[in-house]
Amino acid sequence: ATAAALSGYHTVATLEEDLRRLAESHPEIAELHEIGRSIEGRPLWALRIGERRGGARKVAFFGCHHAREWISVEVPYRLAEHLLDNSSSQPVERWLQQGEVWVAPMVNPDGHEHTRTANRLWRKNRRRNLGGSIGVDPNRNYGYMWGTLDISTSSHVPSDETYVGPRAFSEPEVRAVRDLFARELFDGVLSYHSYSQLILFPWGYTLEPVQDDADRSEMRSLAEEMERLIRAAHGEIYTAQQASQLYPTAGDTVDWAYGVYDVPSFTIELRPVSALDGGFILPADQIEPCWEENRPAALEFIRHVFGEPER
Ligand code: 0X9
Ligand code: ZN
């Protein structure tokens, strides 16, 4: 069994072990990339899955921008494992001939390590801020409309939970994602978070909907299709909505990916649905059902981005 199967959630160390093992056991189609280093010097890992570099289509899945959202590591990790385990059956085989799937399950390893060893509810990275507080919110540090809001959900106060940082892309974890994107030019992005069971599409920084009619309806209908697919698995309701309807924030991953690269981008808030169900503390026996319901949605996202006809 994998380290994860034995202990439930991955740690920084067991994730590295398991990603290495996945890459080593599928040398023809998987390649482990260190895409940067965290502020405390930990490697940031992304697994590239596909038969060759420079595939026609490329999609990226990210997890764990926020340290305490442990389930957001497990869904993209299991997606990588699923694609590799099914690499010779359709439609996965076709996808891996045609394009590349990149999976970076833990964007914020320093924060994750801190949640395991010191404070389970830590959110940000571990930047030492001017003034002595710790942490920038990685999901506020991207350079599209960065810093344009100054509200509790997007704060310019360093000690706040949603501190945007001193400037866009001030954080090495976020620069690593930026630079990976600049090299690979993804055709779509899905970033996992928890909790609330939501499927969020741009914009997040404004209540205005996306201007372009085609983009707006593409992202809305894809979000609604993912909502249906998730519900069909175990009856769990994940609500599709514009991100700013949850609350407005500036500088998140999906606003940047859509705003700068004009590609479909989503945030999925995983289980549970509410704080009454444990909030960020999701029991390990929920990992498997959460992955099961998210698998068809993730595969649908790949299918869509890879440009296959509607089923
Ligand atoms: O606040 C966030 O970064 C995300 N929620 S979380 O509870 N995981 O922290 C939501 C980001 C979605 N974007 C906007 N609401 N603008
Ligand atoms: Zn989050």
Automatic annotation (TrEMBL):
Its EC number(s): 3.4.17.18
Family statement: Belongs to the peptidase M14 family.
Cellular component terms per the entry's GO annotation: extracellular space
Record-given protein name: Zinc carboxypeptidase
Residues of the full protein shown: 70 to 380 of 380
Organism lineage: Bacteria, Bacillati, Actinomycetota, Actinomycetes, Geodermatophilales
MF GO annotations: metallocarboxypeptidase activity; zinc ion binding
Cofactor: Zn(2+)
Top-rank EC class of the record's enzyme: hydrolase
Function description: Carboxypeptidase that possesses the specificities of both mammalian Cpase A and B. Thus shows broad substrate specificity, being able to cleave Cbz-Gly-Leu, Cbz-Gly-Val, Cbz-Gly-Phe, Cbz-Gly-Lys and Bz-Gly-Arg in vitro.
Domain of life: Bacteria
GO biological process: proteolysis
Recorded catalytic activity of this chain's protein: Releases a C-terminal residue, which may be hydrophobic or positively charged
Keyword entries, A-Z: Carboxypeptidase, Hydrolase, Metal-binding, Metalloprotease, Protease, Signal, Zinc
Active site, UniProt feature: 269
Keyword Nucleotide-binding attached: no
Organism encoding this protein: Blastococcus mobilis
Domain spans labelled Peptidase M14: 8-305
